Amino acid sequence: MKNINFHHQHHNEFSFQLDQPSLGMLSREYYLDDKESKYKDAYLKYMISIAELLGANHSHAVSEMNAVLDFEIKLANVSTG
């Protein structure tokens, strides 16, 4: 997440904030715990169905959404919760 804000007293100054990205599932533990794979499977199916509703063909949606899930797993591994 990123924010750019005006300084409340000095209107010609800005502040820029960076924060950890938010993940698609509620908790990073869903990504990290193999016992939670049913949640990962359901999330992947959901992402694929949304991609298809937006016009992607099935094989492309499967490929791309698997890449998205892999990326989110990597983010979960480096995030602090």
Which features characterize this protein?
single chain; 81 residues; alpha+beta; two-stranded antiparallel sheet
User: Largest sheet, order of strands side by side?
Assistant: 1-2
Q: Kindly state the mean pLDDT as a whole number?
A: 83
Whole-angstrom Rg: 17 Å
Number of helical stretches of at least 4 residues: 3
For the largest beta-sheet, the strand count, sense and barrel status come to: 2 strands, antiparallel
Question: Would you count the extended β strands for me?
Answer: 2
Task: Describe this structure as you would to a colleague.
The protein is α+β, with helices and mostly antiparallel strands and 81 residues long. The chain has a domain at 23-78. Helix content is 52%, strand content 12%. The protein is built from three helices and two strands, in the order ββααα. The protein has helices at 29-32, 37-53, 58-78; strands spanning 2-6, 14-18. The protein has a two-stranded antiparallel sheet. α2 packs across α3 (58-78). The radius of gyration is 17 Å and the shape is flat.
Secondary-structure blueprint of this entry?
Layout: E1 2-6, E2 14-18, H1 29-32, H2 37-53, H3 58-78
Antiparallel strand pairs: 1-2
Helix pairs in contact: 2-3
In short, what is this structure?
The protein is α+β, with helices and mostly antiparallel strands and 81 residues long. The protein is built from three helices and two strands. It has a two-stranded antiparallel sheet.
